[in-house]
Amino acid sequence: MKAYVREAINRLQAESREPFCAYLYDLGGIRAHVRGMRRYMPERTGLFYAIKANPDRRIIEALLPLIDGFEVASAGELLKVREVSGSVPVLFGGPGKKEAELEAAIRHNVSYIHVESLLELRRLIRLTQGRSEPVRILLRMNLRTSALPQTHITMGGRPTPFGLDEELLDEAIAVIREEGRGAVRLCGFHFHSLSNNLRAELHAEMIELYLRKAEEWMERYRLDIEIVNAGGGFGVPYDDAPPFDWALFTSLIARSEARKRLARVQLWFEPGRFLVANHGYYAAEVIDIKPSHDRYFAVLRGGTHHNRLPASWGHNHPFAVLPAERWAYPFARPEIRRGKVTLVGELCTPKDRLHADAEVELLRVGDIVVFEKSGAYCWTISHHDFLGHPHPKFYYLAEGNDHATHANMDN
Ligand SMILES: *Cc1c(COP(=O)(O)O)cnc(C)c1O
């Protein structure tokens, strides 16, 4: 953990009267990371942020000047982006778009709608009949291939509710040409087949496959497309695996043969996790430590109702211990020295577990456990009100200063 993050948490805990429980987002860290990513990106590529990974307004604001736009998957997410910028490009996706959402997308001037089914296509065409400008769409495709990398979460290359089965493309093109003339314009294809892929070579190969497919379809249907959106899915390791090699990935993309042939096509990426995961911290104070049947448990002020990712994926979430000296009682302070401990939350369910059998040097009641890599899919996927405990506080580290400001109490 970076020293300034450690210092900020120590200082905030010292100021806190209640047992400490907070998310800390390092906005400067996110911005430096994304600036670094952009330096490697070849020409004719674009970078969007899929806000479902973390829709915190401060993160959207921090990313706004650094990226090409945002990907949203509901009217609610769309409004979150539009509250920050009325004009930034937005891509609108999602498998269950309601008519009101499609209308909101058009009203709020999204750049492209990712169409995910034949019925959705027909609904959209009906809605947009008679407009002066056609609505620009990308078709989200689910490929019939077994050649995609296997990860924890896959949305393509197998039966899923996402996107349009490749075998339905004939029909979709016919609908666009016959019923959708003047109402929608097919501007390209969208793929988002997996999440948390750590292997840069396989990711580049997958995108080469996307590009070859797009090329094949352009020829078969005589299409003139401008965009291939290759989705997100760039991974972040939650164990000792090596991180996704962005420099290698972008160098492979720069050399892609299919991309050279598609000389007028933009290749876009819309990561969520990869932009923000490493710059979020979930810090929870140890409330109790107790032995049970030859094991030790540390109970935290917090848990999976704030950070559901480890329970959702069944993994042990990486953490660091921040020692705190404060101890207000006359009796002994429970501790574990050089031993194994399972970190659990304050909920009355055995599912409330963040890390099983962790080796610790020293962990005492009152210390803080800081779960690293908690910037993506942690707070936002959690069941915040289960059992009615107070929400964590939210703090933000701005660029070039280690001063934590306190905001977003309504989270
Ligand atoms: C969730 C999602 C993303 C972001 O995925 P990550 O794995 O966080 O990069 C991008 N595109 C679509 C369509 C998504 O549903």
From TrEMBL:
Gene3D superfamilies: Alanine racemase (3.20.20.10), Lyase, Ornithine Decarboxylase, Chain A, domain 1 (2.40.37.10). The keyword Nucleotide-binding does not apply. Its cofactor is pyridoxal 5'-phosphate. Keywords: Pyridoxal phosphate. It holds the Pfam family Orn_Arg_deC_N. Residues 28-277 form the Orn/DAP/Arg decarboxylase 2 N-terminal domain. This is Staphyloferrin B biosynthesis decarboxylase SbnH. It comes from Paenibacillus cisolokensis.
